[in-house]
Amino acid sequence: MNKILVTGGTGYIGSHTVVELFNAGYTPVIVDNLSNSNIKILDQIERIIGVRPEFHQLDLCDENKTREFVRSQSGITGVIHFAASKAVGESVADPLKYYHNNFFSLLNLLNSYRDTPVNFVFSSSCTVYGEPDTLPVTESAPVKKATSPYGNTKQIAEEILSETALAYNNYNIIALRYFNPVGAHDTALIGELPNGVPQNLLPFITQTAIGKREKLTVFGNDYDTPDGSCIRDYIHVVDLAKAHVAAINLLEKGNPNGRYDVFNIGTGNGYSVIEAISAFEKAAGQKLNYTFGPRREGDIIKVWGDVTKSSKELNWTAQLGIDEMMASAWAWEKYLKDNPIL
What we know:
Helix content: 25-40%
Number of helices: 11
Mean pLDDT: 95
Distance between the termini: 31 Å
Largest sheet: 7 strands, parallel
Order of helices and strands: EHEHEHEHHEHEEHEEEHEEHEHH
């Protein structure tokens, strides 16, 4: 079966996608520089699928090494590109890190495949919409000025990919604009594993509940939303992983929309931060210690997606709800407590 290169494949979404690719009959090949992931995740993936995936430690920002790696590989027909820095708050504090890592890795990959036909799936984000004028937001909504350097890297990357697909016949590209991935694999063997202080909501929730963190700070309770907290479209990471497999499938069959396309990947439902906390408290059977703090620079107030296009054209629909998201994230956190080797 076809080999699919997964960059950032030991990371949160990447590791789950490796599992789903294998389940769908593909042979995943992982590239990761391990800057925000743990090599021991390979052991966990092997426990789930029964096979140790091929792994290469490589910094894709190194042009020569990236080109050498691509030339050394045979049989790779698709690339799923996750490898990027991804925290909104950190990007505001250190924008140069984000522009360097997110652009050089993408450009080096694309340049390395200049002479090779390739199906390319890009990890984009709903942040390209900025603060949407109407909700739910569709793929035809205007791409507005980004509210953070992270969001700006996704917007510019999409422009690069669109222009690349137009100029070169060998690229077939899909950008998946996904919303807020949460949860963990149902085996509780892989899940979100941030280095240091978490930048995303759910690992901070679970680490607070397990006792690693004293309390959770909710950034802002005075937004124009029903309970004053930000609203997001949370999606289970396993559903998100399956969306990447669906994108590869569509590219292999030939996307009738052309060599470049975009899809929203979410549930179509918006939950506030407070509603997410309540859902976690229900799943965990315990109250969470949280307090309110000031708004965080770069945060969008409310966004959730219209996923009609993904359902009809990508043949993909999210299957797991907020309860499964929270229960699986909690199971993963408890697994980590009993298995500190990770």
